[in-house]
């Protein structure tokens, strides 16, 4: 993450400039954009452009859309190949890279288990058996995927279902922020379902201040971050329940970790790392975060009848707070 504010960002600041706000729905959640308006493009045009960009991402990566590229790949026969669109190729390439660097804690190939358990487009199967989940587990595994980033070819090894729920929102946040830049909007805060990216500064020369998410009922000191050319993503179980699949078991994670937030200069990477660190938990996850220099905050449930939580932060995040 940048440790200094870009000089040209200060030059653009003017307290008289208004901040526009737009909001909508996409990717099964809500999005919101705040941007400094300089009259280069009207809010209606910005909203239309954002809608088109998000629709394109849904058409490629949504497990809720039967006609999406992801859904079509999941239905392919063993040995079939597909030439991926550029966005999809970027996401799968990043997903496989994080899978390797996290030693499999992040794994986008457990979509079949997620679907069986009701975390996809359909409710959980009433006749779900341990054998069904074992079969789904046996057919998953990021190492089974053969992907050529040069030709963007991805091969279906047979029975493997992709699930981008741990990375797609982060990609979409980055994509919308990049779109705003293409429209001449250099100062903005973009949020999609709790994942945020900030570009530039507010009109008063302040960064975009955001509070890291905390689970309901968690009595923790507020942790406010000034975002500038940076992103934050949070993985938690307090909105959708125990929906994160543990790649080592093919089953939902237990409820020890309430949330993990990651700060990074790239929202897609923040999103994926938040998922990976959630899977690893506060012990192994903190070791990996410190080894990789990841700024992360873990919120852990403590045993007992009354809800109690403990917060742990990585060395990189501690340095950011001290600075």
From TrEMBL:
<comment type="similarity">
    <text>Belongs to the ApbE family.</text>
</comment>
<keyword id="KW-0808">Transferase</keyword>
<feature type="binding site">
    <location>
        <position position="166"/>
    </location>
    <ligand>
        <name>Mg(2+)</name>
    </ligand>
</feature>
<dbReference type="InterPro" id="IPR003374">
    <property type="entry name" value="ApbE-like_sf"/>
</dbReference>
<keyword id="KW-0285">Flavoprotein</keyword>
<keyword id="KW-0460">Magnesium</keyword>
<keyword id="KW-0449">Lipoprotein</keyword>
<keyword id="KW-0274">FAD</keyword>
<dbReference type="InterPro" id="IPR024932">
    <property type="entry name" value="ApbE"/>
</dbReference>
<feature type="binding site">
    <location>
        <position position="271"/>
    </location>
    <ligand>
        <name>Mg(2+)</name>
    </ligand>
</feature>
<dbReference type="GO" id="GO:0046872">
    <property type="term" value="F:metal ion binding"/>
</dbReference>
<keyword id="KW-0479">Metal-binding</keyword>
<dbReference type="GO" id="GO:0016740">
    <property type="term" value="F:transferase activity"/>
</dbReference>
<feature type="binding site">
    <location>
        <position position="275"/>
    </location>
    <ligand>
        <name>Mg(2+)</name>
    </ligand>
</feature>
<dbReference type="Pfam" id="PF02424">
    <property type="entry name" value="ApbE"/>
</dbReference>
<protein>
    <recommendedName>
        <fullName>FAD:protein FMN transferase</fullName>
        <ecNumber>2.7.1.180</ecNumber>
    </recommendedName>
</protein>
